Amino acid sequence: MAEQLLPSVVNISTTQSIDPERGPSIPNFPEGSPFRDFFDEFFDRHGQRPMPGPRQATSLGSGFIIDASGYIVTNNHVIADADEVTVTLSDDTALKAEIVGRDTKTDVALLKVEADKPLPALGWGDSEVARVGDWVMAIGNPFGLGGSVTVGIISARARDINAGPYDNFIQTDASINRGNSGGPLFDMDGNVIGINTAIFSPSGGSVGIGFAVPANLAKQVINDLKEYGRTRRGWLGVRIQTVTPEIADSLGLDAAAGALVASVTEGGPAKESGIQAGDVILTFNGRDIEEMRRLPRIVAETEVGASVPVEVWRNGERETVEVELGELEAAEESGLLASDESGPGGPGSATPDTTGSTVLGMTLRPLTGDLAQEFDLPEGASGVVITDVNADSDAATKGLRPGNVIVEVHQRPVETPDDVRAAVDEARGSGRSSVLMLVQREGSTSSFLALKLED
Questions:
Q1: 421 vs 435: CA distance, rounded Å
Q2: Do residues 231 and 224 lie in contact, with contact meaning Cβ atoms separated by under 8 Å?
Q3: Is 107 known to sit in a ligand binding site?
Q4: Are residues 258 and 194 in the same domain?
Q5: Which of 10, 169, 187, 291 is deepest in the core (most CB within 10 A)?
Q6: How many Cα atoms occupy the beta-carbon half-sphere of 394 within 13 Å?
Q7: Chief location of this protein (predicted)?
Q8: Residue 363 lies in a domain
Q9: Could you tell me if 372 and 447 lie in one domain?
């Protein structure tokens, strides 16, 4: 198997011009300054006087041929900022490569070389059917040695290492080191099921924890780069958050699964289809959303313009809506994207108010112009203002602060503290152990959270 696959794996080297100003330089002292004489003497003595002109930096990585006409896959970080990319084949033929396209979100890049003969191409495998415990083989260019083969098993799947928004890495204990980046990870049929991308290593060498971009994610990116020179991902137009056990209980869900819609982008596909803030997306195009971070990957993999069914949990019932997906990149360029989920706001700077009504450890007051000015709330804000929070309450634990605004309780708009209390009492009366609130924190970003129904 190694004998058959080695000719399709290539070594990649890059060169990059380095600004000489980044190296050691003499500070700009006036002529005749004793400090200037000191630095002149220091650089002359140690032979470190800056040399004029740019310097060249080189780096090494791996790649593999996916088309006999000369298309080669590698990691984006292997060729990032490169002025020149050289691909060395298994027979030591060196070819200059053109960068066809790159995707920073998945760390994948596509190169093209011109050869005088068809090149031995590899085939994609199905990374979805790969199981933990399956044997795998990695081939690459560790430390510039070239053509190195290692074997191991799949240690885990769907790893999120905070490398990007679509993290879904295959983890393997096949030895992967610096220089293996961009190389293929094979199943035992010789098909590429991953692109070796990262390692976890306190020492800098292999400790048996390597990560590969799964083939099913990479091949769609590669097809887009090949056809369009850029990616074209599906776009739904929602800002989502995790469904915690408390949120699930407050909504009447049997399990903490799905993706809670915190807000819907105006003019986006979700808005047009009728998806609302407070909906929980349970399935997308027939695929279950077991956890929140699965939804962006599935949406991104779906064809732009496709009309797909989306099942949501709304008002204690399942409903299905049809959504025609937009294009993520076009939405980014036009500035339509919903803002990222915001963390808890910082403590309010205003003096706590103790004259309002207290509910679940929060002192609440109706939103007035004076309060909007006091807490610097955005124009058009509506709801009930939190003016003080009991430090021992669940509200404080969840990060609520003076100046936050409660917009909805139990998925109903509120305008007065009595509205909040009534909704809380209703949730308590229905046997819930928590109540769902839509809260506007700093700026105009809103998110859902569930507060325990304390006495």
A1: 11
A2: yes
A3: yes
A4: no
A5: 10
A6: 15
A7: periplasm
A8: yes
A9: yes
Do residue 245 and residue 323 come from a single domain? yes
DSSP per-residue string spanning 189-226: TS-EEEEEEEE--SSSS--S-EEEEEHHHHHHHHHHHH
Rg (the chain; Cα; Å): 28
Which of 129-138, 218-227, 336-345 is predicted least confidently? 336-345
CA angle 144, 145, 149 (to 5 degrees): 120
340 annotated among ligand-binding-site residues = no
pTM exceeds 0.90, yes or no: no
In the structure encoding, which two tokens stand for residue 309, read together? 């069914």
70 plus 38 within the same structural domain: yes
Question: Is 316 known to sit in a ligand binding site?
Answer: no
CATH of the domain at 182: 2.40.10.10
- Cα–Cα distances (Å) from 313 to 9, 243, 277, 332, 399, in that order, read 48, 12, 11, 28, 26
Residues 24, 52, single domain; the answer is yes
DSSP letter at 142 equals: G
Last residue of a domain, one of 181, 204, 228: 228
Evaluate whether residue 126 is within a structural domain.
Answer: no
Residues serving a catalytic function are 77, 107, 181
Q: Where are the alpha helices (DSSP H) in 232-326?
A: 245-251, 269-273, 294-301
* Start-end of H helices in 19-168: 34-46, 76-79
Tokens linked to 92: 């030591």
Q: Nearest Cα to 385, choosing from 411, 360, 403, 399?
A: 403
Domain boundary among 183, 201, 228: 228
187 with 13: CB under 8 angstroms?
A: no
Q: How far apart are the C-alpha atoms of 389 and 398, rounded to whole Å?
A: 11
In which residue are the tokens 């929140």 written? 292
What residues does 57 pair with on adjacent strands?
16
What are the CA-CA distances from residue 27 to residues 23, 24, 33, 37, 47 (Å)? 12, 9, 11, 11, 17
Same domain, 9 and 108: yes
Does 349 count as an annotated binding residue? no
Q: What is the pLDDT of residue 352?
A: 37
Per residue in 65-104, pLDDT (tens digit) is 999 999 999 999 999 888 899 999 999 999 999 999 999 8
Say what the pLDDT of residue 265 is.
87
Is 223 assigned to a binding site?
no
| Band (211; pLDDT cuts 50, 70, 90) | very high
In degrees, rounded to 5, the angle at the alpha carbon of residue 78 between the alpha carbons of residues 218 and 162 is: 60
Structural tokens at position 301: 């993999």
Domain that holds residue 60: 2-113
The Cα angle at residue 16 between residues 10 and 19, in degrees rounded to 5? 170
